[in-house]
Amino acid sequence: MDLGISGKKALITGGAGGIGRATAQALLDDGVEVVLSDQDPDQLDRAVASLTVSSSVHKIAADLSDVAAAERLAREVALTVGDIDILVNGAGITGPTGAFHELDDDAFTDVLTTNLLSALRVTRAFLPTLRGRGWGRIVFVNSEDAVQPYDDELPYVTAKAGLLAFAKGLSRTYAGEGLLVNSVSPAFINTPMTDAMMDQRAEEEGGTRDEAIASFLEEERPYMELGRRGEPEEVAAVIAFLCSDRASFVNGSNYRVDSGSVATI
Ligand code: NAI
User: Fold this and answer.
1) Where does residue 206 fall: left (phi above 0), alpha (psi -120 to 50 degrees), or beta otherwise?
2) Where are the domains of the chain?
3) Torsions phi, psi for 139 (to 5 deg)
């Protein structure tokens, strides 16, 4: 399907991560000029090198946990490509896990800063360019955890639930100007984030990563009916659709890409 966005410009935060990189490839394949941003310059280099570049791709390193980073990023993006049409907020961390009584304030502060406040700040920094064009897209990469809170991931679920509410509220403000805002909520995708989770589980269980994945699916994600981790490209396809001209009547939505993991209708 032609997404109708050839020639548009996009910024992807968390761009060197599994879902961010796959999203970059999906947008590049449709002729979008893409800026990848992430915190580690070496990781960014590797991500860009792995892309099949059919149009321009750029990279800008930024640690979004720094309160001033979003404004700096906006200035650098403007110097690099000018105004953007599409913003994908993908940067995120799982952060500390455990029961609530095992978690201190810092456990919440770090996760809220990276997953919620940084997305909010990046959105604010790019609003002037996104608003001024009569056509724009913002996609927040959320999580199944926003609506299905797991009790051992409370900092993460708190941040993602806040981000989902923020995105929904935001979608009401600018839709009339052609700036559409949506969320995508994956579950258990094959990226460095869940590799790290599964390696830790494998160590605790004394088994392999594959065995940890199998036991996690069986014990912790019983509604993931496809019985496997998702691939980043399967999330990127939905993000790319929401970034596209084809999604012209989609606003304030939350698309699940979770093979059924969220148990409610
Ligand atoms: P990932 O770990 O491969 O990518 C996340 C990227 O965010 C990393 O490249 C990381 O460097 C970047 N990042 C983290 N903190 C940052 C900071 N302070 N400044 C700038 N960049 C920062 O993981 P994945 O899976 O690609 O995650 C992408 C998004 O998808 C995240 O928001 C995550 O919460 C969400 N998600 C992932 C799921 C999964 O199963 N992999 C499931 C549900 C949601």
Assistant:
1) left
2) 9-189+234-247, 191-229
3) -125, 130
Q: Name the 3-class secondary structure at 116.
A: helix
pLDDT tens digits, 115-134: 999 999 999 999 999 998 89
What's the 187 CA to ligand 1 centre distance in angstroms?
12
CATH of region 9-189+234-247: 3.40.50.720
Strand order in the sheet with 254-257: 57-61, 33-38, 9-13, 86-89, 136-141, 179-186, 254-257
Q: Give per-residue pLDDT as tens, 222-264.
A: 999 999 999 999 999 999 999 999 999 999 999 999 999 999 9
DSSP secondary structure string, 26-84? HHHHTT-EEEEEES-HHHHHHHHHTS--SS-EEEEE--TTSTTHHHHHHHHHHHHHSS-
What lines the ligand 1 site, CB under 6 Å?
A: 14, 16-20, 38-40, 63-65, 90-93, 114, 141, 143, 186-189, 191-194
* φ and ψ of 61, to 5 deg: -80, 135
Q: Which single residue is written with the structure tokens 């996104």? A: 130
The radius of gyration computed from the CA coordinates of the chain, to the nearest angstrom, equals 18
